[in-house]
Structures are given as C-alpha cells and as structure tokens.
Amino acid sequence: MAFKIIASQCTQCGACEFECPSGAIELKGENYVIDPKKCTECEGAFETQQCASVCPVPKTCVPA
Ligand code: SF4
Ligand code: SF4
Questions:
Q1: Which of 26, 33, 44, 59 stands 20 to 30 A from 6 (CA)?
Q2: Distances (CA, A) of 12 to 34, 41, 45, 46, 47
Q3: Which residue has the CA at smallest separation from atom 6 of ligand 2?
Q4: Does the beta carbon of 51 sit less than 6 angstroms from any atom of ligand 1?
Q5: To test ligand 1's pocket by mutation, which of 17, 18, 40 has the most ligand atoms within 8 angstroms of CB?
Q6: Residue 51: exposed, middle, or buried by beta-carbon count in 10 A (0-12, 13-18, 19+)?
Q7: Which residues are registered as beta bridge partners of 45?
Q8: Which domains does the chain have, with CATH numbers?
Q9: What is the pTM of this model?
C-alpha cells in the first residue's frame, strides 16, 4: 500500500518531501511524486501519514 499525490491539486510547496520518513517523495520534473515502492504509509514511524498531515491542500496526499 502507498499514498499518492494528486498532481492537479499540488502547489509544489515541498513541505511533504521533508516530512516523509521513508524518503519516498521527490520532485520529478514539475511534480512532486511518491514512489510507491518506498512509501510505507508511515507504518511503524507515525500514527498518521505525514505527507497528508503537513500538506496545506486538503485531499492531495491520498491512498493510491
Ligand atoms: S504516507 Fe508516509 S511514507 Fe508514504 S509518502 Fe506519505 S509520508 Fe512518506
Ligand atoms: S505538501 Fe501537498 S501541496 Fe506541498 S508539495 Fe506536498 S503534496 Fe504538494
């Protein structure tokens, strides 16, 4: 399981990249993307998905 970023809603603020405990978020070209192979859904690290909790745009980091 992994989270994904809805590109059309993302403002490219970059906040999520630094909060991800798995290093799964990267700027690729013009979009921040979550590598589904690296995303752990924050299991074992945090109670809530950090990308979704820091993202200023509601429902932009969502379950894939
Ligand atoms: S759910 Fe957690 S591990 Fe997955 S991309 Fe978001 S912050 Fe990273
Ligand atoms: S925190 Fe949200 S708006 Fe900011 S780069 Fe990540 S997904 Fe995009």
A1: 44
A2: 13, 20, 24, 23, 24
A3: 16
A4: yes
A5: 40
A6: buried
A7: none
A8: 3-58 (3.30.70.20)
A9: 0.96
